[in-house]
Amino acid sequence: MVDAVLFDLDGVIVDSEPVWEEVRRAYVAAHGGTWQPDSQRRLMGMSTGEWATYLSGELGVDRSAEQVAIEVVAEMTRRYAQRVPLIDDADAVVRRMAARWPLGLASSSPTRLIAAALDATGLADCFGATLSTEETARGKPAPDVWLAVAARLGVDPARCVAIEDSSNGVRSAAAAGMRVVAVPHGSYPLDPDAEALAAALLPAIDALTLELVAQLDRTICS
After folding, report:
1. How many whole angstroms separate alpha carbon 93 and alpha carbon 110?
2. Which terminus of the chain is more exposed, N or C, with fewer CB under 10 A?
3. What pTM, to 2 d.p., does this model score?
């Protein structure tokens, strides 16, 4: 049976990936670095420490990784203070799932941005456990954050359904042994190997229904 449903935040509940890309692109340009064609795809799922090191090192930004993290997150916080870009109907989907299953949140966003997003959308009370990859040894595609959220909820990862949008996120949740529902962003399609790992592929978050999760429930039981 399904014991819990676990959500990613960026790209699933909040349409923040384009904002992250805009902020980090501008930051790299302003600080002597060079954005690469595959930078955004590589960044999706990285923990704060990992992406800050990537900008500082591989992209050639003239700031330490610590400075990069502080300054980029400060700009994201400023953007969130103006508007949190909630994906259409995502809040209703979360509440619908919360009425039936315990929910967890496993995100690559910094802890303070997770809190800001959930407070602004009124969804904080829906989640029994939330965790940032800031607090795990490795970011996605490693399974650490999903395993930790499942542990905090007291559930078996193999009895969890994970909702993800990015290739690294799907790889991460699948590596944790979870059934993965993929909801890729139109601008960031899944890599073929990640798509093959998904138990279901949805065009939008409002296609996530109780009936779909119940079907996965039967798959887990079998």
Report:
1. 23
2. C
3. 0.88
